[in-house]
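Design job #97: recover the sequence.
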């Protein structure tokens, strides 16, 4: 078995889950699905059982580093690395690669977000092993989710024929399509959803960054000189906020050659909105989620998320999201739940960062 490091990206703010998700308690630190554990804890728990906690790296924000440490007691605190500013996924992954390269430059990095849901853990672990084997040969590898509907909220990957067991060569990455185009992708059978999960060696991804994102690579090299020394924290604060803000998909994956993809079906959801939470929640006969203890009269397909001691009466309504916290209440149409982030934007414009 090759040396493997799991890299968990946990710096997001989860604005689409406001008011439950806040800057200091974002989505990845919530139990969105009522499973009994937070999303980040579930992400670490589903990693292969033989992967030691010492080889788990978590890249998060300064605002929640202490909370992440508390949530992941088996992961060494020094492996929970705080970004002083959010700069998107390419700098996040590059920083992790610099850490791994210090001691294990040929180790495979399994990179995944902290806030995805995966229902079939055994299938995920099988795919994980396949990803490690493919990446160990020096390739950049991603998981592609077999589509079940013509989704317009995901990027897609077009696949060539399978090059080896369970692994396909990538023909191209495509942006979020219209519904008509998404239906064509679904019917073609050779498109998958872009999962945002990747496998590559530390050296392979840094080589790509040096070639394709030289300004980012140079900035990371400046930081790398201080890693593991007393100057590390100061160097991060000085240089990291100046790094180009760019995603790993746009900056590397969409332009690189020889990318491979593992098509998977392990009950994946990116949990991108309250609508996704509704879809994955148990429901009553009328399609209402988490409404068992409330008054429901002629109401359908609603999601209720309120404190346990608060009674809600739903009468003659449908397709609503109701989320109540101590200091804020959200009511929106379920099909507009992607736009909840606009409320957060409006609060910031009003200077109400205390509610964000």
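Job complete. Output follows.
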């Amino acid at each position: 078995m090759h040396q493997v490091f799991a890299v968990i990206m946990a710096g997001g703010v989860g604005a689409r889950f406001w008011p439950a998700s806040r800057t200091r308690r974002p989505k990845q630190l919530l139990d969105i699905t009522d499973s009994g554990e937070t999303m980040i804890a579930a992400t670490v728990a589903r990693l292969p059982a033989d992967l030691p906690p010492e080889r788990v790296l978590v890249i998060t924000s300064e605002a929640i580093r202490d909370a992440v440490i508390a949530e992941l007691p088996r992961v060494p605190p020094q492996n929970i690395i705080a970004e002083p500013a959010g700069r998107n996924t390419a700098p996040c992954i590059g920083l992790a690669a610099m850490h791994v390269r210090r001691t294990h430059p040929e180790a495979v990095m399994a990179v995944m977000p902290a806030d995805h849901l995966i229902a079939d853990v055994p299938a995920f672990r099988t795919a994980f092993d396949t990803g490690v084997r493919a990446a160990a040969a020096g390739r950049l590898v991603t998981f592609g989710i077999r589509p079940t509907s013509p989704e317009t909220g995901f990027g897609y990957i077009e696949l060539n024929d399978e090059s080896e067991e369970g692994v396909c060569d990538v023909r191209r990455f495509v942006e979020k399509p219209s519904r008509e185009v998404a239906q064509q992708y679904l019917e073609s059978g050779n498109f998958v959803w872009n999962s945002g999960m990747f496998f590559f060696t530390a050296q392979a991804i840094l080589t790509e960054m040096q070639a394709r994102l030289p300004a980012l690579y140079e900035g990371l090299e400046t930081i790398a000189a201080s890693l593991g020394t007393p100057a590390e924290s100061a160097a991060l604060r000085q240089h990291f906020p100046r790094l180009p803000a760019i995603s790993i998909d746009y900056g590397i994956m969409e332009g690189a050659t020889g990318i491979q993809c593992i098509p998977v079906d392990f009950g994946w959801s990116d949990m991108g909105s309250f609508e996704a939470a509704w879809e994955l929640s148990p429901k009553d006969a009328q399609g209402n989620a988490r409404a068992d203890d409330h008054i429901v009269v002629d109401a359908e397909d609603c999601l209720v998320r309120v404190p346990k001691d608060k009674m809600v009466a739903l009468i003659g309504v449908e397709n609503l999201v109701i989320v109540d916290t101590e200091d804020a209440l959200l009511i929106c149409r379920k099909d507009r739940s992607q736009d909840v982030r606009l409320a957060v934007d409006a609060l910031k414009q009003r200077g109400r960062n205390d509610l964000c």
